[in-house]
Design goal:
Residues 29-45 have a biased composition (Low complexity). With 383 residues, the protein is α/β, with parallel strands linked by helices. It has helices at 9-19, 41-47, 75-89, 106-111, 114-123, 128-145, 152-155, 190-205, 233-246, 261-270, 276-280, 311-336, 344-347, and strands at 93-94, 102-103, 164-169, 175-179, 214-219, 251-257, 282-284, 370-371, 379-380.
């Protein structure tokens, strides 16, 4: 991050963020490849560091932090992916538990990226039918839970104390999502779980090209206002079920420190419900500086970063940045042809082409609000 001293930094930042237009298209998707060097107005303003403690999200990982390259698919895995893609493209409706099925929306087609399908295939050990069933189940859950309907204003009261943050990136360029149970400011309610889902969705928006996972950093240190930082068993199981079922292959690392005995008891109770792959990613009381560059690691989590949570500054900055990232990704997806199975690397502005640029490939485009499935009849798609 560039260190630029700005007088009256907070006021200037607020003005810059207020002046940003998220409707602008800053991509060049028609060229087939979009590089990650293109800047955006919200991101550019947040790269300017005001004097004093940092109070806004960090836009970029350190230069040495890069995602691991994706594994090359075997011929069998490629065949299973193509089979799953054809299955997904054949869906005309998303089922509802109340019987009110509805047509597939453009947002859902965009969500059904190549990497998304591969995550579900890996999570089901490459069983195509199981992956399709789980994807359809997640589409139903996302609608009925209202993932896309959660708003920053609705969730804002939950984050007034900074009990969750997205701040910086780990050594593999994963966005770091901090959980601070000692800063809990509300009583148990469905909105607490919605808060976590909302923040996971924002972390996904902030992933750099080539990165599909996030890092959870959890500090169970007690505070003056809260000595017991363990979540309730029921809420813990609900959160675990949501993350494992509907966000497969999204957790890259979970770093957990200051674990009191009561929290150890909580983990022992929920351990039977944690899948083996997730267990391997949990690191208790490790040196966090080995996992996150110290300059991007908050001091409260053993780092060197002087960060101060100010809800009136951080929250609008985070929301504007995530909205801008999403707007840019959607613009690339639309320009490329609204394909099923689009490359997330491409949509995030990485050095990769759209899947639609490969000759002779059926992509299942959705131009002008419709799906094309070979020579079959068009199916209307609502926004």
């Amino acid at each position: 991050m560039a260190a630029v001293s700005v007088p009256n930094g907070e006021a200037q930042l607020e003005k810059k963020l207020a002046d940003v237009s998220l409707g602008e298209d800053k991509t060049n998707a028609t060229a087939g490849t979009v590089t990650s060097t293109q800047s955006s107005s919200v991101a550019a303003s947040l790269r300017e560091k005001p004097a004093g403690p940092l109070k806004t999200p960090i836009v970029d990982p350190v230069e040495s932090a890069v995602p691991s390259p994706p594994a090359t698919l075997t011929a069998d895995q490629q065949s299973k992916y193509e089979s799953l893609l054809e299955t997904v493209k054949s869906w005309e409706e998303v089922p509802s538990t109340t019987g009110k099925n509805g047509p597939v929306t453009e947002n859902e087609i965009m969500w059904l990226s190549k990497e998304c399908l591969l995550r579900y295939l890996r999570a089901t050990k490459w069983h195509t039918a199981d992956a399709a069933k789980r994807i359809l189940g997640t589409l139903t859950w996302r609608r009925e839970y209202g993932v896309e309907d959660l708003t920053a204003d609705e969730i804002s009261p939950e984050n007034e104390t900074g009990k969750q943050l997205i701040l910086g990136y780990d050594i593999a360029a994963r966005p770091c999502q901090y959980l601070n149970p000692g800063r809990q400011n509300t009583e148990p309610s469905p909105r607490q779980v919605q808060h976590l889902v909302f923040m996971v969705e924002q972390s996904i928006q902030l992933m750099v090209p080539g990165q599909e996972t996030l890092a959870l950093l959890i500090n169970f240190k007690s505070s003056k206002s809260r000595s017991n930082t363990a979540p309730g068993i029921g809420q813990g199981r609900e959160v675990l079920n949501i993350l494992q079922t509907h966000y497969p292959e999204r957790l890259g690392r979970a770093l957990i420190i200051n674990v009191p005995w009561v929290v150890w008891g909580f983990f022992k109770l929920i351990t039977p419900f944690i899948d083996p792959l997730t267990k391997e990613k949990l690191k208790f009381n490790d040196n966090m500086r080995q996992h996150v560059p110290p300059q991007q690691l908050w001091k409260e989590f053993q780092g060197d970063l002087d960060f101060e949570y100010d809800h009136e500054v951080y929250w609008p900055a985070l929301i504007k940045l995530c909205e801008e990232k999403h707007s840019e990704q959607r613009a690339r997806w639309v320009k490329a042809g609204k394909h099923y199975g689009e490359s997330e690397m491409y949509m995030r502005g990485g050095d990769a082409p759209s899947v639609g640029s490969a000759p002779g490939k059926e992509t299942g485009d959705a131009p002008d609000g419709t799906l094309e499935k070979g020579k079959e009849a068009e199916v209307p798609v609502k926004e």
